[in-house]
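thread: overnight batch results

M.L. [08:02]
morning all. the overnight job finished for the chain we discussed friday. pasting input first so we're all looking at the same thing
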Amino acid sequence: MTTGPKPTSGPSPIAADQVRIVPANEASWDDLGAVLGTADAGRCQCQRFKVLGWIWRDSTQEERTAMLRAQTACDDPDAPATSGLVAYVDGEPAGWVAVEPRTAYPKLRTTPVPWKGRHEDKDDHDVWAVTCFVVRKGYRGRGLTYLLAQATVDHARRHGARAVEAYPMIVPPGKKITWGELHVGARQVLEDAGFVEVSHPTLRRVVMRVDFPSPG
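M.L. [08:03]
and the structure it wrote out:
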């Protein structure tokens, strides 16, 4: 599997051998904070699909932070589960991706867009979901999201997932987006990791998926 297109100018691309990606419970809470603290995710704390109401009205910063800390189980390598992966570049915390069973995201299951034209069991805990990418300032535009996307596939497969899906956005020709809008990932990043488009519910949103072969 390739690691996708890399920048041809500006900061040098990050090589795979510079990167170590670990489950968040094997990372420190301080390291995860260093990544999230440089992005809009520092406010959201990856709770967009977990707070049932309007995230900024029905939760506080302190509540969201406490939720993420419990979900990731950072600093506890023996924890039975975690909610994402942390990437280190040359030993420095540089990236985060949220990936866990789709059933862990109650709001995702009630949001109509991802389900448009699809008919499947929303409560299937064997389907995992990738919902957020964050790259720390100073490491952006260097290909790290490609490595994070591939890591989600490997992580979900190792933990017995039947499939893993993501909800990236498309950038229409001539349109601009902000860095924060791409927290769900870009289509070309997911394609490079082996995800295949299964639906195209809106102009700017697609659902992509990797299905794993049945054992045996």
